[in-house]
Amino acid sequence: MPEGFSAADTAFVLIGAALVMLMTPGLAFFYGGMVRVKSVLNMLAMNFVALAIVSVLWVLYGYSLAFGTDSFAGLIGTPDHLGMRGIGLDDLKGSIPVTVFAAFQLMFAVITPALISGAIADRARFTAWVLFVALWDTVVYLPVAHWVFFTDNGNGGWLVDRVGVIDFAGGTAVHVDAGVAGLALCLVLGRRIGFRRDPMRPHSLPLVMLGSGLLWFGWFGFNAGSALAADGVAGMAFMNTQVATAAAMIGWLAYEKTRRGVFTLLGAASGAVAGLVAITPACGSVSMLGAIAIGLVAGVVCCAAVSLKYRWGFDDSLDVVGVHAIGGAVGSLLIGLLATGHVGQSAKGLFYGGGPGQLGKQAIGVAAVAVYSFAISWLLGLAIQRTIGFRVSPKTETVGIDQAEHAETAYDFTRARIPWPVPEEPRTRPRGPAGHLMGALRRGLRRNSSKKAGPTGTDAG
Questions:
Q1: Which of 114, 183, 197, 345 is the least crowded, having the fewest Cβ atoms under 10 Å away?
Q2: pLDDT value of residue 196
Q3: How much helix, strand and coil, in percent to the nearest 5, is found in the chain?
Q4: 417 contacts: CB under 8 Å, gap ≥ 6
Q5: Tens digits of residue pLDDT in 97-119
Q6: Structure pTM?
Q7: What is the reported pLDDT for 456?
Q8: pLDDT tens across 191-212, in order?
C-alpha cells in the first residue's frame, strides 16, 4: 500500500458510499408514498433509473469533469480521466484510494437529479425524464460539483477555492441545485390536472415514513462520510446531523400545530428531511447547539415555504422547492452566522466574531448555484418539451401514468371470485348414517340458496 494509506478511512468512506446509495431507494419510497396510487411505479422508476444512467456517465466522463484538474477559472475539470483513465489502485485522495473517493462522489451525482423528480410527479413522460437526467447531470451537476467540491490549494472550484464558500456535504451543489431545477421544470410542464381543485393526498403514509427513515439512516453516510476520514470531524458531522434533524421535526410540527391545529405524520417526515437538508452544508462547521438552531429554523421556514406554491401558482407536486431549495439555502446562509472556526473549518461566522464576510460568501454561493441551475434546467426542459414532449397527454394523466408508461400497477385490486356452490370435497372414508343426514341437509340448503339468488346465482366476491 502507498504511504499515507489508511485502511480504516477507506472502509469508513466505502460504508458511507453504500449508505448514500441507499438514500436513492429511500427517496423513491418517500416520494412514492406521497403521490397518488396511479403514479407510484412511475415515481419509483424515475428515482431508480438515475442509479443506472448516472453510474455509467460518471465513469465515462463525469468524474473527470467534476474532479479533474481545473481547466478554466474554476468552472470545469479537464477530460484527463475519461473512462477513469490514468487512475491507478495506489493513487490516493488524502488517505483513501481515488477509486473509493470516486465511488463516494458518484452517489451524490446519482441522488441529486433524483431529487428533482418529486417536483414533476404525476405528469412527466419516462423517456423524456431519462433524457433530462443524462443532460442535466452533464451540464448542470458536474460543473456545480466542480465549483463547490473540488479543492486544489486555491486552484480548484471557483466557489470553494476562490470565493471561500463553505459547503461540507452539498447544501448548494445538491439541494439548492436540485430544488431550483425542480422549480424550473414545474414552470415548463405546468400544473397537474385538478391542481387546487382535486384532493391529491399521499396514498401511503407508511411508505412515506419508511422512505424518510431510510433517508435519515443514509444521511449519516452523506454527511459524516464527507469528512473522508474516520476522525473527530466525522463524529461531529454525525452528531450535528442527528440533532438538527430532530430539531427540525419539532419545529415543523410546532408550526403545523400553530397554523392547522394538528400534528401530521407527513409533517413529521417532511420536517426530518428539511433538517437533513439544512444541516448538510453546515455539519462540519457548527457546534451541536448551532445544529439544533439550524434545525429549528429550517423546520419552521420550510413548513411555511411549502405553501408558497398555492400562493404563487406553481405546482411543485412533492414540495421539492420548499424543502430542498429553501432548506439548502437556509443551512448554507446560517453558516455565515454560526460557523465556530473550531470544527472542520477555520472560518468564523458573525455570531463567533467573524464579521459579515462569511455570510456574504455564503450568499454568493447560494445565488450563483440557484441562477445557473434555474436557467439551464429551464432551457433543457423547454427543449425536451418542444422536441419529443416532456409532459404526458391529459388522458394518460387522468387515467394513470403507471399503466400508460410502464403497463403495470403498484397494487392488484382485483378480487378473487369464489365459485358458488362450492364443490364438495372428495370423501376420504365411508359415511355413516349421521354423515348421510348432514350431506342431505347441506344439499337442501344449497338448493334453497340458488332459488333465492335467481338464475345467475350469487357473487361471493
A1: 197
A2: 87
A3: 70, 0, 30
A4: 459, 460, 461
A5: 999 999 999 999 999 999 999 99
A6: 0.88
A7: 38
A8: 999 998 888 999 999 999 999 9
Taking alpha carbons only, the member of 281, 240, 225 closest to residue 104 is 225
Closest CA to 30 of 109, 133, 136, 114: 114
Amino acid at 218: G
b vs e for 360-398, b when ≥16 Cβ sit within 10 Å of the residue's Cβ? Answer: ebbbebbebbbebbbebbbebbbebbeeeebbbeeebbe
* CB proximity list for 381: less than 8 A, separation 6 or greater: 132, 184, 185, 188, 189, 390
User: SS3 sequence, 351-387?
Assistant: HHCCCCHHHHHHHHHHHHHHHHHHHHHHHHHHHHHHH
- Residue with cell string 391545529: 261
CA atoms within a 13 Å half-sphere pointing along the CA-CB vector of 382 = 9
What DSSP letter does each residue of 191-222 carry, written as one string?
PPTTTTTS----S-HHHHHHHHHHHHHHHHHH
Residue 339 half-sphere exposure toward CB, CA atoms < 13 A: 30
- Across the chain, which has 461 residues, the per-10-residue mean pLDDT values are 92 98 98 96 97 98 96 92 93 95 98 98 97 98 97 93 96 98 97 90 96 98 97 97 98 96 96 98 97 98 94 94 98 97 89 96 98 98 97 93 91 61 49 59 60 41 30
Tell me the CA distances in angstroms from 45 to 60, 165, 175, 355, 379, one per residue in order.
Answer: 23, 35, 21, 47, 24
- Preceding amide of 2 cis, omega within 30: no
SS (H, E, C) 29-44: HHHHHHCCHHHHHHHH
